[in-house]
Amino acid sequence: MGNAPYARSQLASVTARGGAWLVDMVASLAAAVVSLAVGAVWGGLADLAFLLVAVGWYVVSEAVWGHTPGKWVVGIEIVDTDGEEISASAAVVRNVTKLLGGASLLLILAGVVFIADDLDNQRLGDRFADTLVVRV
């Protein structure tokens, strides 16, 4: 791409993205454990509760606010490649590829390489969704 409406210095670094990921992982896992416990008490709702937390944490927060809580904490957000708010479908695409790419340490490292190797610091999911992660 290389022609984004943001200067390279405005793009979120791998370090900032990693910090946001760490905050999101810890918080969403804690929320998922609580949802599983609640679901276990009420019968077979544990899987549904876990899915709702996982989808809500990433897809809904990115589609509604342009960032996850972790991204908010580190001061980054997601925009489309024109610099506008991302769509709900872009949030879904980003996160489907994140689920596939987060399945192993090797795939996570491959994502870091994609970000570091791209002029617009895009991981594969950003490329598919036409999104950028920028500093705010």
SSE inventory with pairings:
Blueprint: H1 14-41, H2 46-65, H3 69-74, E1 76-80, H4 88-101, H5 105-117, H6 124-129, E2 131-135
Antiparallel strand pairs: 1-2
Summarize the structure.
InterPro entries: Pra-immunoreactive, RDD. The chain is mainly alpha-helical.
End-to-end CA span: 21 Å
Strand order of the largest sheet: 1-2
| Largest beta-sheet details | 2 strands, antiparallel
Low-confidence stretches: none
Task: Specify the number of helices.
Answer: 6
Q: What pattern of helices and strands is seen along the backbone?
A: HHHEHHHE
Sheet-strand content, in percent, reads 5-15%
Membrane topology: Multi-pass membrane protein
Transmembrane segments: 21-42, 48-65, 99-116
Subcellular location: Cell membrane
Main location: membrane
Give a structural overview:
It is a single chain. The chain is mostly helical. The protein has one domain (11-135). Helix content is 64%, strand content 7%. It has six helices and two strands, in the order αααβαααβ. It has helices spanning 14-41, 46-65, 69-74, 88-101, 105-117, 124-129, and strands at residues 76-80, 131-135. It has a two-stranded antiparallel ribbon. Helix 1 (14-41) packs antiparallel against helix 2 (46-65) and helix 2 crosses helix 4 (88-101). The chain starts with 13 loop residues before the first helix and ends with a strand. The model has no long low-confidence stretch (mean pLDDT 84).
